[in-house]
Every structure is written in C-alpha cells, then in structure tokens.
C-alpha cells in the first residue's frame, strides 16, 4: 500500500487553490466549452478535469500554514540554502510544490531531481542529483521553516541591524 505524502502549503496558497478549484468546477458544471463539439473544446474540458483532480488531490494532502519542525532537516515547507559544489555558488529556495508559489522566493518541488535529492538532508550533507545536464553535487548549508525565514527578513531581524545594536 502506498501512501500519499503530506504537502506543506501556505494559507495564501491554500486560499488561491480553493478559488481556482471553485472557478474550474463552475466552468465545468456550467458546460462552458460544451457547446462546441470540436476537438479543441474537448481538449479544454479534459484539461479542466485533470487540473480539478490535481488541485483536489493537493488540497486533500495539504498541511496548511503549520511550519515543519525547526530541526534543520530539508523537507517540504523548509527554506533551504545550498552550495553547488561545481562552482561554489549558493541558492536559497523553498522545498514545496509548484502550485504553492511564493512572491519572495523560488519554489522547488520535492519531486524535482534537486528536491528529491535534498529530502531528508541535514546541514553539511552532500547530495547528488541528476538534472538533464548531468549529475551535479550540492551541499545543504541550512534549512529553516518558511515562517522563521520570513521573520528573518523583517528589518528588526536582519543581521546588519543586530550588528549595529
């Protein structure tokens, strides 16, 4: 028996997905695109059905707004900072799902090659993932819950402000 993984999403993303679902269900039930029986109308309705199912599945498995534990382990809902071993460059992004976009940062799916490789990693651990360009090594530098990361971005919490106090 396979279990569907729980997915962390923000309250804002949860509300946005509910609005999208309501709109798609209305369009589908109202029969919009039913009047035409051409292939294009059929394709539109099929796309709506698929998207409705995707959103439904996502919302059923969603953990809304509660941050994961602040244990430093890379998992959905965590903002991670990684170093790419090939060039020493770093990147900070959230591990989550693409439907739960955040205005202030990129979101990498836990199912993407990089997200899957990082899942369960602790700071200092090196992982290898396989994007289309070939195997790449990355080291997890830090993983913090989204809520704590957001709080660190406010002016009273910046490192620069604290150094001057």
Automatic annotation (TrEMBL):
GO MF term list: DNA binding; translation elongation factor activity
Domain Transcription elongation factor GreA/GreB C-terminal per the UniProt entry, residue ranges: 72-142
Record-level GO BP terms: regulation of DNA-templated transcription elongation
Domain of life: Bacteria
Name of one Pfam family that matches: GreA_GreB
Keywords tagged on the record: Elongation factor, Protein biosynthesis
InterPro entries referenced in this protein's UniProt entry, alphabetically: GreA/GreB_C_sf, Tscrpt_elong_fac_GreA/B_C
Name this polypeptide is given: Transcription elongation factor
């Amino acid at each position: 028996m396979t279990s569907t993984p729980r997915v962390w999403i923000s309250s804002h993303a949860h509300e946005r997905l509910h609005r999208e679902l309501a709109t798609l269900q209305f369009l589908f039930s109202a029969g919009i695109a039913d009047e035409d029986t051409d292939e294009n109308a059929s394709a539109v309705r099929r796309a709506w059905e698929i998207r409705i199912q995707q959103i439904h599945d996502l919302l059923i498995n969603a953990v809304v707004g509660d941050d994961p534990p602040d244990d430093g382990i890379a998992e959905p809902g965590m903002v991670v900072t990684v170093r790419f071993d090939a060039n020493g460059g770093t990147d900070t992004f959230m591990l989550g799902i693409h439907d739960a976009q955040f205005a202030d940062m990129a979101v990498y799916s836990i199912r993407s090659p990089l997200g899957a490789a990082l899942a369960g990693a602790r700071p200092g651990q090196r992982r290898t993932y396989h994007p289309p360009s070939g195997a790449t090594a990355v080291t997890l530098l830090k993983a913090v819950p989204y809520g704590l990361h957001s709080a660190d971005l406010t002016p009273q919490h910046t490192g620069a402000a604290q150094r001057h106090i």
